[in-house]
Write a structure and sequence with these properties.
Layout (H helix, E strand, L loop, with lengths): L2 H24 L6 H4 L1 H27 L4 H33 L8 H27 L6
Helix pairs in contact: 1-3, 3-4, 4-5
InterPro entries: TM_Fragile-X-F-assoc (IPR019396)
Protein name: Transmembrane protein 60-like
Keywords: Membrane, Transmembrane, Transmembrane helix
């Protein structure tokens, strides 16, 4: 799938998600929050499938000898990093839905709900800082 199709799919799912959230918050629907988050679940499913398929493709190229073993290992580690970030986002969304469905007495503390999101943001911040340092000192591996 081309980059333009992936980005259009992502924007479309975000748009549908925001419409669902707006309808739910406005009181026009009384849907379960798990139903409201269906576009996000679809996006996460698509993202996980894409990461897994790209990882399989990377391993296939290792057999052909077109990449070095060090490059293959670094690509697989990066794909595992992306998969971990996606699973942290999904865990945050699931716990958020659980708490939003029972606002009177939330079963999970709000600190527990936002813990995966905080871990996700800290990891992404470290990644951005690492890339900026590599770029500023000319240490790009590509």
């Amino acid at each position: 799938m081309a980059m333009i199709h992936r980005s259009l799919l992502a924007w479309f799912l975000v748009l549908v998600f925001l419409i669902f959230v707006g309808l739910r918050i406005d009181g026009r629907t009384h849907w379960n929050f798990f139903l409201v988050f269906v576009p996000m679940w679809l996006y996460d499913l698509f993202l996980v499938a894409f990461i897994v398929l790209k990882s399989i493709g990377d391993c296939r190229y290792a057999d052909l000898g077109s990449y070095s073993i060090k490059r293959i290992v670094s690509m697989i580690i990066f794909r595992l990093y992306l998969l971990t970030m996606t699973l942290l986002k999904t865990a945050f969304c699931v716990m958020l839905c659980v708490n939003l469905n029972s606002p009177a007495s939330p079963p999970i503390s709000w600190y527990g709900v936002f813990t995966p999101l905080i871990i996700l943001l800290v990891a992404l911040s470290f990644n951005v800082i690492h890339e900026l340092v590599n770029f500023s000192f000319g240490l790009n591996s590509d």
